[in-house]
Design brief:
10 strands, four-stranded mixed beta sheet, 28 helices, about 800 residues, single chain, alpha/beta
């Protein structure tokens, strides 16, 4: 491989080959070249040059290392590689068919196989060169990408304000990138293991945390799920999922909803996959940190725990991790072996903004990004965007070997990070503008509304505390209430049985058969005798049940010191009946809420791009079943609500977030909330608006710090580039490194242009001068010239004018960067 890599570099950068070729060792070979469409080429080589090396030196790559029968031009392979960077769903087979069309020959599978094998070798050569370039630039190391890929997160400067969280990042799983398992005992010919990725965690490392959390069974509601569709061997009954470590009763509902929404992953069809998806993590700006394949399992706790273990060992303390079930997973971490270190480093978890609205109100107050001090305007839905894009790979990798699947995913993730870097300044600019707009519009409206209502910011904070304390009491039942309910239920059953027993005895005594005849026949007598025995058996059964129930009533009265027995007109009896109606209402609302949450999660999955036909069909069927269950739950809820004078719901209302946001308020009927100010809809809107304004102020601080970090990293990087190029002069690695630097400088020019646009905003409050990276020593110069012609921030010429301003800004940046290199 070293010889092929060296030959590729010489061909790529037009080095003069030192070897003189010998016609005796030259050979002709069938060729594929999308640019020339030649069908055969003559390859010249010397006596000591291998055929494979000679092919690469001539700009071709053979389909086999020893005796190739076909050679594909490197330009053709580079074209396919480039196309795949920006269109991940473009398959080898599609490209092979395009080549056959250009060559006017019919396609057959051999061409696809040859192209695929050759592309593997081409990728191996590129990885070897990329590794050497990274070594020369000092970008090597197991954790280099995690610690350096995102300057806004990692490039901490001296004397900058301390943030609440050192880093914000997210984890989640993706179920689309599955790979079929082998059939029976068939052996796979491609046994290679791809271990050159900067992202992938090994299966052995992940399995270290397999036994940390034990599984807890999920009770299947037969009204919601079809038990025949569950597959017991797919459900891991030993290893727990991310919610199995939680013991907090307040979060039990979130856990149950998540488990119920995840139940569809346990269907029979999923057992045919070896990799059932992948578990990923990324920083708040979208740069991928680590990923791990989910092997023949659902979303087990070992996957996020393995990533948390890496984060505790690599990232600085006080980080925050977002997860759709982050409220429960925090408890899971603390119960695992990672708990002491997690607590020592003062790290914490939270939920994502979208998924957070499906959690109960008590959970949202503590774990939703809007309510967490120091979060800014971050929604932590980064991975949803990543998964939406990576789903393009799903049709390609479904039947690939494990090696090629990882290679293609790794290429995608590398390109994703490069695009995230290119758009980083734009992302920060948009965040800054969003925060400024909130402070401009919402802050003024908040002050006006507070003045009109006669309350203050301090009052809003007090309301948050009162609401939190109130929510903690929701759903708790006093022991006396439970005993009273049980007693009244026994009384009701006793009266029902007594009435039924009296009716049965009366029927037995007074009923005359319709076909009664004096001196009836033997057949008629036998029939009447049978009817009489059945009636007597029913009377005896009801009398026994009545006596048994009466015994239980007497026991309850003795235990509760009740005397005399409650009657339907007694005050205690009436209050208990009202409480029982409230319980039915609360239980109906609880079930309705659960079904709506499952529907929301399924709809969210339904919107993912490039979801396969079978997957979409499966989800559609589940939604149809769930919709029927929701309609029935709405009817049950309306019946229970009418019994206690509560407003009923219609089908449209249960599909809106406003219903979910107010769920816990609706649920409470034991203590009146009508006289509480925080329950006033206007005040609740002001409370939310106040949090948005507070988060916007934090976002301004975040952006000021992150923009300066990015700006400083670009200047420092360019100085480093100059030193590296000077060091590599007259070496073969100069050209690959120079190629990388040129591309990077072009991107940096665009970033600087957008940075100076942001610094020109009327409300910008950050430091416009570059800083000094923490731990890098004194700066080489005390100041950096900033003679950029900034675009007019008040221009209203539309998008075209904005693009022109960016181009003009790039011209100024290019001029500045040129001055740096001279």
């Amino acid at each position: 491989m070293d010889e092929l890599t060296e030959a590729y570099v010489k061909w790529k950068y037009n080095f003069n080959l030192s070897d003189n070729f010998n016609e005796e060792y030259s050979f002709k070979i069938d060729a594929v070249n999308i640019y020339t469409l030649e069908k055969e080429v003559c390859i010249h080589r010397s006596e000591n040059t291998k055929a494979a090396v000679a092919l690469v030196s001539a700009g071709y790559l053979g389909t086999s290392p020893e005796f190739p029968s076909l050679a594909i031009s490197l330009q053709t392979l580079e074209l396919y590689y480039t196309l795949r960077l920006f269109k991940p769903s473009f398959s080898v087979e599609a490209f092979a068919k395009a080549l056959c069309h250009l060559y006017s020959i019919p396609f057959h599978r051999g061409y696809r196989t040859g192209l695929s094998d050759t592309f593997d070798v081409y990728l191996a050569i590129r990885r070897r060169i990329d590794s050497q370039v990274a070594k020369e630039l000092g970008h090597e190391g197991a954790n280099y990408c995690v610690l350096n890929s995102c300057p806004a997160c990692c490039y901490k400067l001296e004397d900058e304000p301390e943030l609440e969280f050192s880093r914000m990042w997210v984890v989640d799983r993706n179920n689309s990138l599955k790979r079929m398992a082998g059939i029976g005992n068939r052996e796979v010919s491609d046994t290679r293991i791809f271990g050159e990725s900067d992202y992938y965690l090994s299966e052995d490392f992940v399995n270290i945390y397999a036994g940390e959390i034990k599984a807890r069974p999920l009770a299947c509601n037969i009204e919601d799920e079809d038990p025949d569709e569950l597959q017991s061997d797919w459900v891991d009954e030993e290893h727990g999922d991310p919610t199995d470590g939680i013991e907090d009763s307040e979060l039990a509902q979130c856990t149950e909803n998540w488990k119920a929404a995840a139940a569809d992953q346990q269907k029979k069809m999923w057992g045919i996959f070896h990799e059932s998806g992948y578990f990923a993590s990324a920083c708040r700006h979208g740069f991928v940190l680590w990923v791990a394949d989910m092997i023949r399992s659902g979303e087990l706790a070992k996957y996020p725990l393995a990533i948390v273990a890496k984060a505790l060992g690599v990232l600085p303390p006080r980080w925050l991790m977002g997860y759709d079930i982050g409220c429960s997973f925090g408890g899971t971490i603390l119960r695992s072996s990672l708990g002491p270190e997690f607590a020592k480093q003062k790290c914490r978890t939270c939920v994502n903004a979208f998924h957070g609205y499906s959690h109960n109100a008590a959970c949202q107050q503590k774990y939703h990004p809007l309510n967490i001090l120091g979060m800014g305007l971050e929604d932590l839905e980064t991975l949803e965007r990543l998964f939406s894009s990576s789903n393009q790979l799903a049709p390609l990798i479904r039947y690939m070997t494990a090696y090629r699947r990882r290679v293609f995913i790794d290429i995608f993730l590398q390109q994703w990070d490069q695009e995230k870097y290119q758009n980083l300044a734009t992302m920060l600019h948009n965040n800054y503008v969003q925060a400024l707009n909130i402070l401009e519009d919402e802050a003024k409206a908040l002050q006006a509304d507070l003045l009109a209502k006669g309350i203050t910011i301090e009052d809003l904070e007090t309301y948050f505390v009162e609401e939190s304390n109130h929510l903690k009491e929701i759903g708790k039942e006093a022991e006396g209430d439970l005993h009273a309910v049980a007693y009244v239920e026994l009384l009701q059953r006793y009266r029902e049985l007594s009435s039924a027993c009296d009716n049965a005895a009366a029927d037995f005594r007074s009923q005359t058969p319709a076909d009664y005849e004096f001196l009836a026949s033997a057949a008629s007598y036998s029939r009447n005798l049978s009817d009489g025995r059945r009636a007597e058996t029913k009377r005896r059964y009801l009398r026994e049940q009545r006596d048994k129930t009466l015994f239980e009533v007497v026991q309850m009265e003795t235990a509760m010191s009740i005397s005399p027995r409650w009657e339907p007109t007694d005050r205690e009896y009436i209050e208990t009946i009202e409480y029982m109606n409230t319980r039915k209402y609360r239980q109906a609302l609880e079930r309705l809420y659960k079904l709506v949450i499952q529907r929301l999660f399924e709809l969210h999955k339904m919107n993912l791009s490039f979801t396969g036909y079978k997957m979409r069909t499966h989800i559609s069927n589940a939604l149809q079943r769930r919709s029927k269950a929701i309609r029935n739950a709405v009817k049950t809820y309306n019946s229970a609500a009418a019994a206690i004078g509560r407003p009923t719901l219609d089908w449209v209302k249960v599909t809106h977030y406003s219903f979910l946001d107010q769920f816990n308020v609706l649920q409470d009927t034991r203590h009146s909330i009508l006289d509480k100010k925080w329950a006033d809809p206007v005040v609740r809107h002001l409370m939310k608006q106040h949090r948005q304004v507070a988060r916007a102020k934090e976002e301004i601080q975040h952006c000021n710090i992150q923009i300066r970090r990015l700006q400083t990293s670009i200047f420092d990087e360019d100085k480093k580039f100059q030193k590296v190029l000077e060091h590599l002069k007259d070496t073969s690695m100069y050209f690959p490194v120079h190629d990388f630097i040129n591309r990077r400088r072009a991107v940096n020019q665009l970033l600087l242009s957008r940075i100076y646009q942001t610094q020109a905003l009327p409300g910008f409050t950050g430091n416009r001068n570059p800083g000094v990276r923490e731990g890098s020593g004194p700066p080489t110069s005390t100041s950096v010239p900033m003679n950029f012609d900034l675009p007019d921030p008040d221009s209203d010429d539309g998008e075209d004018a904005e693009d022109d301003e960016i181009v003009d800004g790039m011209g100024a940046v290019i001029e500045y960067m040129s001055n740096l290199s001279t």
